[in-house]
Amino acid sequence: MAEFDLGASFIPALHKPSALLPIAKHRDSLLYLIETNPVTIVVGQTGSGKTTQIPQFLEQAGWCEDGKVLAITQPRRVAATTVAIRVAQEYGCEPGKEVGYSIRFEDVSSATTRIRFLTDGLLIREALVDPLLSRYSVIMVDEAHERSISTDILLGLLKKIMKRRPELRIVISSATLQAEEFLRFFDSHDAEGASSVEKEAKPAGAIISLEGRTYPIDVLYLDSPAEDYVEKAVETVFNIHTDEAEGDILVFLTGREEIDTAVRMISERAADLRPGGQSILALPLYAGLSTEQQMYVFEEAPENTRKIIVSTNIAEASVTIDGIVYVIDAGFVKLKAFDPTTGIESLTATPVSKAAASQRAGRAGRTKPGKCFRLYTEDDYRALPDMNVPEIQRTNLAPFILQLKALGIDNVVRFNYLTPPPAELLSKATELLFSLGALDEYAKLTKPLGMRMAELAVEPMMAKTLLTASSFGCLSEILTIAAMTSLGGSVWVQRDGEKKQLEATRRKFAAEEGDHLTLLNAYHTFVGKGKKESRFCHDNSLDFKAMTRAVSIRAQLKRYLERFGIQVDESLKLSSPATSDQIRKCLTTGYFAHAARMQPDGSFQNVAGGTTLYAHPSSLMFNRKADWVIFHEVMETGNKTYIRDITKIEKGWLLEYSAGFYHLRQ
Ligand code: CDP
Ligand code: MG
């Protein structure tokens, strides 16, 4: 296997001078283009240095003088944090000083911050207070090829802002060749009318391509489809480990559950490896991990150890891990899908696009020739779509319509969309916002309710719940529930082989009425006297980090409310049946669209569309009796649609608090 000779020494990323990155030799032309064009589109392979280097080039070239800031947006929170930490390291400062990041509920930036990484969603939110985003001299929209809905909306806003701020510079970076489409978008006339003659003469932007060096990659397919791709992925890891030369392995699966299973299976089987040989270290990478856990994957493996990273599509383009020689691609990705008839949004494992498959394979050839093992047949590959449908065409638009309205864009149909959303999704979102009281019958934002809902950093259904809570006398409790359900993961930890313990401890907090009140009980106990500590969490199967985050999120939400002049009465009423009723009624005012009724077989039927739903095994309502319920969210695993965070309600409340939502349908 001469081609895998590791004789040529491999330089660890942290010490690799940035002058060696493909982007280095384009520095001057890049800066010139940005200087002379309102929009610059940078196309370059993952790992060429776009995210980490461009902001530093700009800063050195003086784009941060006069207190101006550079914004670099990311579709994913994980990417915003890991990349900011990396750039801070290269820059030589603590994260939060000159280089910082801001993601929802976590702001690691300060008045000294000049290079600020943030999610594109957060930048849209910033436009509510600063409509021209005037503190930024350059806004770099990174990973634009992913076409997340926030990216699309942000590009639409920037196109508007650009006209009012000719000095603003926009950099769009993409890992794939969609550059022309972005440029056409900025060059085209507005749907809203005004276009200048001058613009026709001079294009708004330029495209620069950073050709990067890659090594050849052998792509291998399966003869016949795999029955269970997680199992097959694990098997392939061990085949590579025994048959192939040195080099780390990157495995693409779809989500946390699969990844945790695979990591566990790999670690178990690794124990049986022949002693004395190279050992194996399997690490997970997905959005729900703490920043610290994410960092492990970037560290070099200990000597004589092969590192196996099992990741979601985060590792496809957003973050770069060095030393990968083998890629195993299961061929699926979790994508949001919104069903306008049922009003249910779920994350569903979907076949990847050809573009994504080639991105994934590309991860193997960064430091030397590599191999990509696709866990599907070549025929399956040929049947894949070239690109995935942009998120804006398959997601619940309610949060975005609310934002646009709050930004003064009333005619959301004629907004500058890169790709317009289907009319059905637009009307569905408008209907929901109307029933929530955010829009009036002329589809205008209501004041103060609609405006405040847009400002609160939680999705519209929770925002409505929070803003109604004082009238039900349960604001303190709803604040806690909002924080506990905004964590993006579970607060319960099930340690290996301790399923029983989890059940037993959870029973201590369990509320007959369902998950929301159970979460409330857990939080109350956690913040109770002398209990705010990891020991308590460990003994009660709670995730200490998640609980600590809940405390911080709660405080932030409380500050929002106080800014609106809403006072929070924190005198702890021990939840009486009366408060429990108020809390459940209040939840119904926000979550009526997520209502379901239990069927004789124990499954649920969604009220709005008649879909069959199942209580997630992590819910208290799993295997319990109920009649009418509301739920926080839907998650799809395999071929069943699961609902999570479920609370019993009464049918009468649904009619009372849903402002005609269910009548509209008759
Ligand atoms: O954005 P793009 O994919 O073009 O590249 P980048 O993220 O700027 O990465 C440039 C280099 O920095 C690569 O060699 C990465 O491996 C390295 N890097 C790293 O080692 N650790 C990070 N957290 C981010 C980047
Ligand atoms: Mg990047």
Automatic annotation (TrEMBL):
InterPro entries: AAA_22, DEAD-box_helicase_OB_fold, DNA/RNA_helicase_DEAH_CS, HA2_WH, Helicase-assoc_dom, Helicase_ATP-bd, Helicase_C-like, P-loop_NTPase
Domain Helicase C-terminal: 233-408
Top enzyme class: hydrolase
Domain (Helicase ATP-binding) ranges: 31-195
Any single Pfam family the record assigns to this protein: WHD_HA2
Entry keyword annotation includes Chloroplast: no
PROSITE patterns linked: DEAH_ATP_HELICASE, HELICASE_ATP_BIND_1, HELICASE_CTER
EC number(s) reported in the record: 3.6.4.13
Keywords in alphabetical order: ATP-binding, Hydrolase, Nucleotide-binding
Name of the protein this chain belongs to: RNA helicase
